[in-house]
Each structure stands twice: as structure tokens, then as C-alpha cells.
From TrEMBL:
Protein name, per record: Protein kinase domain-containing protein
Family note: Belongs to the protein kinase superfamily. ADCK protein kinase family.
CDD domains assigned: ABC1_ADCK3-like
Pfam families cross-referenced by the UniProt entry: ABC1 (PF03109)
Record-linked InterPro entries: ABC1_dom, Kinase-like_dom_sf, Prot_kinase_dom, UbiB_kinase
Length: 674
């Protein structure tokens, strides 16, 4: 990792239980986006690292070493550069990692016994994959490769299950990577689930006692004799705390799974080194980078202390949202292999009859779910990466509850802004810029000629949006997109494969509960409300881009945005979850669309930005007539939502700032003329 990266500012923090280091990027990461990793070094809260001091230290070390590099350091540099590429692409700087290729190599090769185990495992994998590859080759040679696709896809799924947890996880990743495998194989791998036979209860109870440091009966009055759920990496029990009588969920990691994962990751990366040429040609990146993405995420899932921090971040993000329930973590009872959480007594979100019997309005519940998902993606930049039906519940008061936070993904502030740019470019039908957005997000290598991709993007979007909201769904768009990425040198970054899977899974849940549900009919109002009310300068800029097309003000778009935004507020405020008296009074949801800040910012722009002022005046006098009726129509839409005295007070308060900005703008124009 390059410590001299100018995009990073170091900030150090300390927690009560673990010493943590975090680094925040200049592009504006939110609190939950700062990656936190445990270290064994005690760090003072006031301590800071100076980038310039690092430069001096590094330079002196280089001069002492005389630039000499051993073969080992060359390997480190090579693998580190791949990890740095991931950091740059994500816009997140990670000073301490659980995964690096060097860490994996050192753990696997630390003893003679582990080397023998590695060799044995390598023979097993090569033998099984070799047999499968031979079968594919035979099918191709005899010309029946297309006829037996379904059988071979099923055979691949069974093969991955038999090879163990690392390969099950790899199969789940491949099920969302149309840039790597064909769509028919993806469909089969989507069946691949984490449902595997549980390991013995006594083994699990021993692990819990080791983490607690005391007998089970001193902490719990009872614990379920059967697992509630079993997965490739761990399993879950239900228990009752002795001290408080609260029901909790206990997540226990499978015994001795970490050495298996490290061993398989080493073999994955070794195999990937032989496939770099093919990967570079097909995806525009080397295969080792894909393995590094996978390995980093897998090792994060193995550390339950990281999952506990993920839950804390979600709790912080949704602390003022009365429609979302996140379970509490009992950190004093948790460790790296055991996680104790609040028990969620909810209804599976795939059982519409049970939800109706509980008196929950399904339409309102789905609105809450879609809004929560969009907030995670576009507002927080920290989203649940595995929202399958077993991880989402409907609470009896109408709230949506999430569990299992081992697989979460982060989007930097820059990535979020580019996603919003892509939405704006789609609305404006600017397909060239949409293609450039793909490059900025890491789907295409820098310097790639996007001209062949532009017509394909245009075709996909027009085929999908041309049907209208009634027929639009993410699965149909994804199917067309899969064909695009398979035929062009497009690589889907791991975090965006999770975004795609998350959206598809949640859309599928929506269709299960309400077959005629229109995802975009909820998503559009949320985006409209964000564009109209969010004071973020970047979103203000995107709003202007949406309202002006080819320099012409779009009155109809403004009216549509207001109507959609008001619809979002109405749906959220009328949701059953908001009406429950048991919810804290401090958690409030707005009852009407608040445009005070938007009007204030608009007035400031009108007076200080000559370009905007000219465009607005042209909009009012377009086609040689005053567009008074359009202004009246807009005012009627927001009349009931605007408190004129409040807006007037806010504008007056902002007057000194407007005058200052106007003076600065005038002085800049005078100086530029000279």
C-alpha cells in the first residue's frame, strides 16, 4: 500500500474494547464508510500521522537500502499494487488489512505439515476440476456443448458444494458475475445456497464457552437444541440471557474453518496467476485482482468482530428512522468466532398471508423496504450485501428488520455521486456519458474505447424504459446487461456485483409479496425527494442537470419531480410503522415535503450565478412569451407544503451570505475582464 497516496488523510481512533485504526479519503466518506481494523498497538486519540513525515521516512529508507530489492519484495510490490488498485477504484484507503496475498502465503506455508496439507488439497482440487474441464472439452469436440449446458451447470454446482465452503462462496460470487461466466450457468449457481449440514451442537457449545471464558449455564438459562440456521461458515442458535431474560441469537463459526479458507485462497491465487493473460483480454484486469476482491470479502466474513462493527454502523445510520429495525449486539459476549445479537421476532418477508394476518399493509411495508435499500445505497454508502428472504423480516408493527451483517459493501462518496450521475445521464438519454460513467466506476479499464458500447447501452435502456413503469424490472435489464458484459471487456467490481444481487433479490421479494408491485414507482419518488431536498452541493448540481436539457428548462420535469417527491412523503408518513405508539416520539418522519432549503439555495444561485440566472430568465421568456402559467402550476403543487413566513425568514437570514457571494462573483468578473 502506498502510504504517500495524496488522496488519503489519516485519522486515528480508539474504542473501549479494540484499538482501531481508520483512514478516511478526501472524497468525503461518511462515518460508516471509514473502514476499521483491529491492531495490537495502543494509539493515543490525539495522535496524527503526517504525510510529509512519511515521505521523509520513506525517502531515507530508500537511500539506505540503495534501491535494492529482493525477489520477495518484488512479489510484495506486485501483489500490493493489485490491492492499491482496488483502493483507488473504490475511493477508500485501507491502512490495515485482514487479507493480503502475503498474509495468506505466510499462513499457509508456515509449517511442513501445512505444506503437505496444501499439496493434498491441491491434488484434490486439480483432480476434480480437471475431470470437469475434460468433460467440457469432450462436449466441445463432439459438438454437443450447447445441448448439455443444463447438465454441466448442475454438475458444476454439485462440484462446488462437494469442494467445501470456499468453493460454495466462490459459486455464490460467480452467480452474480456475468462478466466471468455465461448466464445459463449463473442461473444454476443462483440455486447454490448456504444451507449445509450443521456441525455437532457440543462442538458449537465448546466454541461458545471458549469465547466467553465461562460455562454456558452462567450466561444463558436455555439454548436451542437445534440450529436455527446453518451456513457454510457458521450456524445460529436461539438462547435466553440469564441476567435479563432477553432472547438472543448466537452465531457460531465452524471449527477449524480459517486454515481451510486460507489454504484455498492460496490455491485460488496460484491458479489465477496462470489465467492472467485470458483475464486481461476478456475483462481488462488480471485474474489475481478478482481473487483478491473475493479473498478480502471472505476473510472479513470470518471475523465476527467486524460484523459487530457493521451492525453498529447500521444502527448509527438508521437511529432516527422509525421504519427500520437493526438488532443490538452484545459485545461483551461476542468475539471473533461468536456473535451474540438481539433476537428478531419477525415474519419471513416471503409469507404474504402471515404479513396480512398481522395487520400489516403490504404496500406500505414494501415502500419502507425499497426506501431503506435506496438509503443504504445512495445516502449511507454502506449496504447489506446479502438481503435474501432469510435475512429480512417484517416486524408486527410494520417495520422492516435486517439480520446477518457479515456480507456488507461500501461505496465511496465519489461512487455514490457517479451512480447519481448515471441516473441523470439516463434521464437525459446521454448514453456516451453513461458509458463514461462505467469507466469511472471501474467496469471498464481506463482508456477503453467506449464507442462500441454506447449503442448497446442505448438499446438496453430504451427497450426497458420504453415499456414504462408497468413492465420495467431489474431482472429484464440485468439479463440484457449480462449479454453486454459477456461480449465486451467489462469487469463488474465486486461491490457492484453485490449491488446488482441486492437489488435483484429485493425486487424478487417484492414480487413474492405483491406480484404487480412496481419497484420504480417507489424508487423514483425517493430519488426525486433526494434531488429536491438534499442540501448536498453535489446533489444540487445534479438537480440542475436534470432540470436543464440542452440549455432549455424542463418545466414538466420539475412538476413530475415535485409530484413524485410528495408521493414518497405521503407513503412514508402513512405507513403503519409510523403510527405505532410504542415507537419513540423522538423518531419522526416528515409529514410534508420541506422545500425551504431548496428555495433558499435556488434564490442564492439566481443572484450569484450569472449562468443559472440567464437560463432561468430564458426559461421564463422562452418562445417570446412569459411562462407565467408554468410558474402558477408549480406553485399550486407546493402551496400546501411551503410555509411562506418560514421561507422568508430563512432567505433574510441568508441575505448576508448572498451579498458576500454576489460581491465575490462581481469582483471575479471584473478581474477576469481585465
Amino acid at each position: 500500500m502506498d502510504l504517500l497516496n495524496p488522496n488519503c488523510i489519516n485519522s486515528l481512533s480508539i474504542s473501549t474494547n479494540n484499538h482501531q485504526r481508520s483512514r478516511e479519503c478526501k472524497n468525503g466518506a461518511s462515518k460508516s464508510q471509514i473502514r476499521r481494523f483491529s491492531t495490537t498497538t495502543t494509539i493515543r486519540r490525539s495522535e496524527r500521522f503526517s504525510v510529509s513525515n512519511m515521505a521523509v521516512t520513506t525517502a531515507s529508507e530508500t537511500s539506505v537500502n540503495g534501491g535494492a530489492r529482493t525477489s520477495r519484495s518484488s512479489l510484495v510490490d506486485k501483489s500490493s499494487s493489485a490491492m492499491e488498485l482496488l483502493d483507488i477504484e473504490r475511493g477508500v484507503c485501507v491502512p490495515f488489512r485482514k487479507y493480503t496475498p502475503e498474509t495468506v502465503r505466510n499462513k499457509v506455508l508456515e509449517s511442513r505439515g501445512s505444506i503437505l496439507s496444501l499439496a493434498s488439497r491441491g491434488v484434490e482440487i486439480v483432480w476434480n476440476l480437471g475431470l470437469y474441464w475434460s468433460a467440457l472439452t469432450y462436449d466441445f469436440l463432439v459438438g454437443r456443448d450447447e445441448e448439455v449446458v443444463a447438465d454441466r451447470a448442475r454438475q458444476l454446482r454439485n462440484l462446488l458444494c462437494n469442494l467445501g465452503p470456499s468453493f460454495i462462496k466462490a459459486g455464490q460470487v460467480l452467480a452474480n458475475r456475468p462478466d466471468i461466466i455465461r448466464e445459463d450457468y449463473m442461473s444454476e449457481l443462483c440455486i447454490l445456497q448456504d444451507d449445509v449440514p450443521p456441525f455437532p451442537n457440543q462442538v458449537a457449545f465448546n466454541i461458545i464457552e471458549e469465547e466467553l471464558g465461562r460455562p454456558l449455564e452462567t450466561v444463558f438459562t436455555k439454548i436451542s437444541s437445534q440450529t436455527i440456521a446453518a451456513a457454510s461458515l457458521g450456524q445460529v442458535y436461539r438462547a435466553t440471557l440469564r441476567d435479563t431474560g432477553e432472547d438472543v441469537a448466537i452465531k457460531v463459526q465452524r471449527p477449524q474453518i480459517e486454515p481451510i479458507i486460507y489454504r484455498d485462497l492460496f490455491l485460488f491465487r496460484t491458479l489465477a496467476s496462470f489465467l492472467n493473460g485470458i483475464s486481461l483480454q476478456k475483462l481488462g484486469c488480471n485474474a489475481e485482482l478478482i481473487v483478491d476482491e473475493f479473498g478480502e470479502k471472505l476473510l472479513e466474513e470470518l471475523d465476527y468482530t467486524l460484523e459487530a462493527r457493521n451492525i453498529e454502523d447500521f444502527l448509527e445510520n438508521f437511529k432516527d428512522d422509525p421504519t427500520v429495525k437493526i438488532p443490538r449486539v452484545y459485545k461483551q459476549l461476542s468475539g471473533s468466532r461468536v456473535l451474540v445479537m438481539e433476537w428478531i421476532d419477525g415474519i419471513r418477508c416471503t409469507d404474504p398471508q402471515a404479513i396480512k394476518r398481522a395487520g400489516i399493509d403490504i404496500g406500505g411495508f414494501l415502500t419502507v423496504g425499497v426506501s431503506a435499500a435506496l438509503r443504504q445505497l445512495l445516502e449511507f454508502g454502506l449496504f447489506h450485501g446479502d438481503p435474501h428472504p432469510g435475512n429480512i423480516f417484517a416486524m408486527r408493527d410494520g417495520r422492516i428488520a435486517y439480520v446477518d451483517f457479515g456480507n456488507v459493501a461500501e461505496l465511496s462518496q465519489q461512487n455514490k455521486q457517479i451512480l447519481i450521475d448515471a441516473v441523470v445521464h439516463a434521464v437525459n438519454e446521454d448514453y456516451v456519458e453513461m458509458a463514461n460513467d462505467f469507466t469511472r466506476l471501474g467496469f471498464l479499464a481506463k482508456g477503453t474505447d467506449v464507442s462500441p458500447i454506447v449503442p448497446a447501452l442505448e438499446s438496453i435502456w430504451q427497450n426497458s424504459s420504453g415499456k414504462g413503469l408497468s413492465d420495467f424490472n431489474f431482472r429484464s435489464v440485468t439479463g440484457q446487461f449480462n449479454t453486454l458484459v459477456y461480449n465486451y471487456p467489462i469487469r463488474i467490481p465486486e461491490r457492484f456485483s453485490l449491488v446488482i444481487r441486492s437489488l435483484l433479490t429485493q425486487e424478487g421479494i417484492c414480487f413474492t409479496l405483491k406480484p404487480d408491485f412496481k419497484f420504480l414507482e417507489v424508487a423514483y419518488p425517493y430519488v426525486a425527494k433526494r434531488l429536491l431536498t438534499d442540501p448536498n452541493p453535489a446533489l444540487r448540481e445534479r438537480l440542475i442537470q436534470v432540470l436543464f436539457k440542452d440549455g432549455v428548462f424542463q418545466w414538466k420535469r420539475l412538476e413530475n419531480l415535485i409530484v413524485l417527491a410528495k408521493e414518497n412523503v405521503a407513503k412514508m408518513s402513512s405507513n403503519p410503522a409510523i403510527q405505532v405508539k410504542s415507537i419513540s416520539k423522538s423518531l419522526q418522519v416528515e409529514k410534508k415535503l420541506d422545500l425551504t432549503d431548496t428555495i433558499k439555495d435556488g434564490a442564492r444561485l439566481f443572484f450569484t450565478d450569472e449562468g443559472i440566472r440567464r437560463k432561468l430568465l430564458l426559461a421564463l421568456t422562452e418562445d417570446s412569451k412569459l411562462h407565467v402559467q408554468e410558474l402558477v402550476d408549480v406553485y399550486r403543487l407546493v402551496e400546501s407544503d411551503i410555509d411562506i413566513p418560514t421561507v422568508a425568514v430563512e432567505v433574510v437570514r441568508d441575505l448576508p451570505t448572498v451579498v458576500r457571494d454576489l460581491a465575490l462573483s462581481w469582483s471575479d468578473s471584473i478581474l477576469s475582464d481585465r
